């Protein structure tokens, strides 16, 4: 292996650590410090504000439903992509990744165009049937599902490919039907990948902002999520509340990531 | 020790395909049908609607929307800052990956966690976080809020992990014997890095750069609080889309969104090609 | 009458894996499907197991029409080359899997698992995970797992292919002994002719999707149906347009035997007790002959010696078909 000369090694260390410190570590620690400047006062103010409480509930509901939807869809589509052959498979597997790089704002606009109840292709008939999508919970869930869509799939597909299908064939030759094979053999072998996918989806769903902002209409105590409350309170100069709400979000998301890094075995068998 | 939690998109190190795949049966066929219906309702039809709205508005209004002074400035700023940030990421991201993989010092594991923070943090919180150090009331006395530098700063923050996390696994798996062979043939450290290591890392760096650029183009949340969204000055493309939506001009919003969508799809296709090339190289 | 394969064909895209194959595999015996890689033998085994479907033809297992039965209803035991161990289950759980699927009572399952683990000498490893076993142990576990459900037939796909030479040989003997104890109709796929000759009661030679010959090891060795079978089962050389085994050639230092072919020794290599000669004749440039060291010394052959070659009495010879001359 190439030996980095000592001065260069030190230079690289100082530059990278300095960069990460200035860009990430210091600013993040400042937010934590500001949040707890007056002890727990900021958090207490925030948690006694009905707008904040409602928004936290809203975030919980939307993120919860979105994660379940992405779990079911993600595991199903991963199995189809890895274990079956069908026309258009390559295109589908590429399209699945598109939500990762599409702007949340474009996601919001796209859903708005199709599902608005005034002239949306699908929004009008749905509205006539009594289901309001845009400016309501269904739209917010859809936006959140959209942005987090590939996360479970990206974790599960490589593991499914790596595990191969011999264990499944063995289970079938031993008399297990499809459902038994899935629960007893397939799922246990992709268990950790599914857990990581879910946790990453949860972190992403909790933090979604742009797409939800467009489709929710941002109505206080109705369709406002926590991220939207952070924006609103900050702009209304309620900085304490903004920092507290931001801290709660950041804490939950970072906790997700830390849990994953602790859970993830060095070499997932 | 290394907590590579955030798998970066663009599976550079994707595995070979499993040897046997079956034809669809009744259950799996039905499953595919349901999955495709859901995927269409959620992703394909809405994204098509964006393009359709743009096309429906006609070429002239498309051009008009994009040549609007404010929009053109926003698109230019977005592209400029994304390119700049991507260039910084290529250098810094590779350097960080190098330090994480090849250097050993106390606290290195903590760096690994710090790198995941931008992925984990909600974007609106990211904006708030940067304001704390670089906004009004900065302990450093640096206030970039509502300036062009704020856009750069926000993008640098949210795109930081991409190059690091694509390069890191490749660097970890790099065989040392090629480097040793080069050294035994008389190559200096720099030559070995340039001729042996860098070419192996190039696809990963390219993938990370593409992702970082795409993210830069699409970023919204972290900029809202930080950049002030000043027209002609700090307004980016995504903010422009939102303004058009709020002003009830979906056709113009769709025009800008179509450009952004094109960038996103191009990047995904590019990554697919890169990944296949890496897979072929084995 | 145990497994009847009739008119089975299978294509993968342009590649013909099996071309109208019909064969009957006898009950209670240990049968080998032998042939080169890519010849279709694994595909045939997988079609019998129901893990692959044939394009045409029928499969009967013990008189039951099984062509369209899914794998889980065929009651076959299948052992995979790479073990296909359930990695998240202990050895005992792996073996119990088929019984639990069949909802057998708990105490019955436990007793049967104990019995099988004893049979494969893994009783002390019951609570280990497959990852903690060696390759040979894993394969024995896989075998116990397949036997646990009392399959009508036991199918093994290159069962020892992933093991190193020594373990391979041990397991091979052990499989033979196990079969003599259990007597379940067993079919195993191999590309190793020594393995087939040593273990099997009956051998089916498959090449390029077709069956070349079916018979006992002795029949195959002594009366090969064609030059492919002859050359696949052991070393061969050509003398006067016929295939013959190098150790079935007599080397003479005189021309007094009628029909002996004259030639000149071009190379002498000694390997232990064996001496290998290369002989140039008028027709073939490179006939190989294997002698014992004593024979070679008695003849006093060396490079350049004139010799006469003739097949030993009772030697198996097969005329070279046009097909084989290309290879």
From TrEMBL, chain B:
Residues 75-271 form the ABC transmembrane type-1 domain. InterPro entries: CysT_permease, MetI-like, MetI-like_sf, Sulph_transpt2. Its main location: membrane. Keywords: Membrane, Sulfate transport, Transmembrane, Transmembrane helix, Transport. It is a multi-pass membrane protein. The chain crosses the membrane at residues 21-45, 83-101, 113-135, 147-164, 196-217, 251-274. It is found in: Membrane. Part of the ABC transporter complex (TC 3.A.1.6.1) involved in sulfate/thiosulfate import. Belongs to the binding-protein-dependent transport system permease family. CysTW subfamily. The complex is composed of two ATP-binding proteins (CysA), two transmembrane proteins (CysT and CysW) and a solute-binding protein (CysP). This is Sulfate transport system permease protein CysT. It comes from Nocardioides jiangsuensis. The gene is cysT.
UniProtKB/TrEMBL annotation, chain C:
SMART domains: AAA (SM00382). Residues 3-233 form the ABC transporter domain. Keywords: ATP-binding, Nucleotide-binding, Sulfate transport, Translocase, Transport. One of its GO terms (molecular function) is ATP binding. The keyword RNA-binding does not apply. Pfam families: ABC_tran, TOBE_2. Transmembrane segments: none annotated. The keyword Nucleotide-binding applies. This is Sulfate ABC transporter ATP-binding protein.
